[in-house]
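Chain A, query sequence.
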Amino acid sequence: MSATTDEATAEGVIPQDVADAKSDAINVLPLSIIPLRLKGLSRLSLTKNVRLETVVEMYRTEDGTGGLIQISDLGKYFSDHDALMQDMAILQKLSILRSFDIYTLRAHLRRLGVAVTSSEKLQLSEAKRSQLIDFMREFTRPLLQRVYGGQTNAITDFEQLVGMFSQPNKEEALRNLRLLASHLQVSLKEIPSFLEEYGDVFLSMAYFRSIFGTVLPIATDLQSWSRELAKGYQFKDDRAFRRSCDGMIENLSNVAGSVTTIFEGFDKTAKSFWDELTMVSFNSLRLAISQQHTTMGALLCGLYVKTSAWDRQFNRGRRAAPQKCADYILSEMIPGLRSMRESLKPEATIIRPPQLAM
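Chain A, predicted structure.
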């Protein structure tokens, strides 16, 4: 990018699938959602590098890598110094976030004093929501059972579910909806609004669960690969490396275990949620889950970035020169683990199901 063509990067239209992938990513923040003075910045993104540092992604290649620079280096590419200084102040605020998923952004942008171009930008794309429908079925099934006797009517997304309740097609369903409204102590016309909030709460956990399902097998392979590497004869006398390797494995294991514990607590609560349903119990559940969004985002973003980078570099642990592997662990994998450890608060490592006020 030329230092004298700030507007050039604003030309053209980003393909929808590319825009969706960025908006749905846990480790990428498209700057198009932030009102900045330099239009050229709107086509760039903040992202996390393998060391979990926040950097600017100038472009991305087909293999998932990109041209990454430090925020402080943007002055080499933009000539409007005054505007850039104002924008960089915003970017520095954003850089402290440990995850760029929409749920973390919702929780922290206002606290940071950072605006968005539209609240709609902090929503998962339609494509991602459709992908998550299978994760959502477990949580929508009790609702359907209560109102429709379990008939799903070939639901493919949550909007269809809301539509079913907005215009019920059976007298029995309408009676059950009135009963549901009575339990919640809301009017019948408020049920669709409740369902949208209900869907968003459970959609957030479906989103995080889908990411965990992707990274966990890779993280398991990474740990096995690292153990075998440390046992190699090349490092039999290198106690420092073996100690570092063991520490990395332990950290990754603790993070994965903590995420698993959070999901187990959530599942236990979700199963009993419909037994004694009130609006108070729903609000308690929503608060308990939203309080975990930042922890979940930080832990999963770290896992995702570390495992994805390792997978690209070594193709799920293919054979490579042992010293090259060791150098990669020391220079790329271990840096940033501290920030992941800091996300492991005592309440995150032993998560208990949210206590619902009945």
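The chain has a mean pLDDT of 83. The chain has two domains: 6-121, 124-358.
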